[in-house]
Queue: 2 jobs
Job 1
Amino acid sequence: MQEALNCRNVNQNLYPMRTQVILLTILLAFWMAGCSYYYVSKVRGSEVFMFSTIMVDDEEIGLYHLPENSGKINRSSGRTLAIETRTPDPVSNALQYLEKSGPMTVYFGFASAEAETGEEFQRYLENLIVYLNNNQGKKVILYGHADNRGSEGANFDYSLRRAEHIKTKLIEVGIDEFQIRVEAMGDEFPIASNDTPEGRKMNRRVEMSLII
């Protein structure tokens, strides 16, 4: 009888200890879960995709397809892909157009200093303005020409007046006059026969040549 009472007292003493062990186990589980979350979110946070930057291994780069028009792709440290956009440069575009088009030729009527211009001339002027206004040390040369009808002095005068006429147009659209040089060539440099009206018209001209 006494032994039964003793066992009962022992069991009653162990009950609070079991409860404490269970509570400590639960607290330990929560603590471990919290540590795991901190490690994933803080320590390894750099491995997560963040907006425009993608962190990938070299082997995985082929799995990501970037847009064709996304601009220049720059790789740093072998693991980061950063997308850069390029803005068009108006001055470079203007220079590229001027180099590609070469000298601009403007033609004139017989005994006239009025140029026959069109859309191509206007486009050339637009690019010439952009380039010269951003390159003050550069110049454009205007070579005036004439056909061989008339005296040498008259033809020289016509070629000069034609070049001056184009110079005035350039100044009107905003080009500095100190960036414009005029050369009167008279009738010494024909590019076609002066025996036909068509040939003479081609010789009555001003050639605009940009010094780059």
Job 2
Amino acid sequence: MRARIHELLGNYANALADLTAALHLDPDNDIYYRRRAIFFSARRNFPLALVDFNRTIELNPLSYINFQERGIHFISFGRFECALADLNEALRLNSESITGLNARGTTFFLAGRPENALADFDSAVRLDTNRYDSHFNRGFVSFEIGRFSEAAQDFTEVIRINPGHRYAHLNRAHSYRQLANLTDNRAQALDYLQRALEDERAAALLGN
């Protein structure tokens, strides 16, 4: 707990010292190793993070969180096949991990497999329709593969759940503009453009 407080305050040296001290007192505690691994990963010290993530799995190979966190770590430096292997194992251990489904969906998308990504995001949305990150991820992938109407629907859900989500407004505006370009119905196109302008104004009011 004290390490987390130090980290939130920006006292990173003290946070690392506390985590390391905890491991000296309890060297077989996979949770402490995982916390230190996440600390290293957040500071982009990938080699030290990986050492600690590996240790968490050696100590507790039945923890889906240990595989899930190492998989997310692999995403951070582009090792997508390693990430998929870990996230597959995490989801085998806990098929209802929404974080795991979102992480694997992201990995599939980055690895050029958008349909697999959408399948994972669909599962995440079914498990909890009020997780706006699942809707945002699915909307983003839908937009990237040209499913602009579906993208707009997901960004609308993000805004329903979290009205202050600036990027949902911006991405919905992009979706509406694409839909306006695709329709031959002038009235419909003008309606889409009006909606896009409203979202762009909302995003500007929300700032960066």
